[in-house]
Amino acid sequence: AQRVTQPEKLLSVFKGAPVELKCNYSYSGSPELFWYVQYSRQRLQLLLRHISRESIKGFTADLNKGETSFHLKKPFAQEEDSAMYYCALSESNFGNEKLTFGTGTRLTIIP
Amino acid sequence: GAVVSQHPSRVICKSGTSVKIECRSLDFQATTMFWYRQFPKKSLMLMATSNEGSKATYEQGVEKDKFLINHASLTLSTLTVTSAHPEDSSFYICSARDWRTGGTEAFFGQGTRLTVV
Predict the structure, then answer these.
(1) CA torsion B75→B72→B107→A89, rounded to 10°?
(2) Which runs of consecutive H residues, i.e. helices, occur in chain B?
(3) Chain A residue whose CA is closest to B48
C-alpha cells in the first residue's frame, strides 16, 4: 500500500530565508506526486505536481526516486507562504485514482 | 479552475439522527468523486470513492451502512451519516477531478464540519 510521510508537523522560517518541506513516500510502482496547500480559511488547492516540472509561487519540488522523496523548496520565504502544506501521491493519472495524503506541515513565516 | 461546492458548511445534529452532506461540481461533470475525513491535526483520510451510476468503493475500515454514498448524477454526490454518534464528529471534504483539463488536478470542496451532540 502507498504511504506518504511528512516528518515535520510545524515549521517556522524567517521571511527571506530558504524553505524546505520534506516529503517521503513508499509505493512499489511509479507514482504521481503532488503538493497541495491550504491557506487560512480557504479550501485545499493544488500547488504543484511533479509531472509538470514547474515553479509555482517560487516553489519547486523534484521527485527523487532513489530516495523516494518529493521535498518542496523555495529559496526566499514570503509572509504569504504561511499555510498548511500536504504532500500527496496518486497511483497514476490515468483514470480516477485516489490521492493518499501525508499528515501535513504547517509553515509559518516569521516577519 | 473548476469549482466543487459542499453543503452545508457546518451542521450540528443530535445523536442518533442522520445527516446528509452534498457535494456538487458546479461547472464540470464528475463521474467520480472522493470523500475524505479529516481529524484534528491529522491528515485527510479517504473514506470512499463515489461512482456515478454505480456503488461506491469504500476504504478498508469504513462502514458502508454507516456512511451511505449516492452519486445519482454527474454533478452531485451525497454522503449520509446514519445514526450519528459523537465520534462521527469531524470535518468531511469531497473532491473531484476535472477531466476537461486532463484530470491531473483534484478540486476540493470547502468542507463540512459535523458536530454530533
Answers:
(1) -150
(2) none
(3) A98
Q: Is B98 exposed, middle or buried (0-12, 13-18, 19+ CB in 10 A)?
A: buried
Question: A51 contacts in B (CB within 8 Å)?
Answer: 104
Q: What is the pLDDT of residue B103?
A: 67
Mutate to test the interface with A, among B7, B32, B44, B47 (most CBs of A within 10 A): B44
Which is nearest to B91 in space by CA: B116, B55, B71? Answer: B116
**A105 interfacial to chain B (CB closer than 8 Å):** no
Distance from CA of A60 to the nearest CA of B (A): 17
The span from the CA of A66 to the CA of A68, in Å, is 6
Residue B28 sits at the chain A interface (C-beta within 8 Å): no
Average pLDDT on A76-93 reads: 91
**Beta partners for B107?**
B96
Contact B106 A93 (CB under 8 A): no
pLDDT of residue A37: 96
Contact (CB, 8 A) for B44 and B111: no
The stretch A81-94 carries a mean pLDDT of 86
Specify the pLDDT at position B6: 96
User: Could you give phi then psi for residue B14, rounded to 5 degrees?
Assistant: -85, 150
- Element at A72 (helix H, strand E): strand A72-74
| Interface touch A99/B42, C-beta < 8 Å | no
* Cβ–Cβ gap B102/A93 under 8 Å: yes
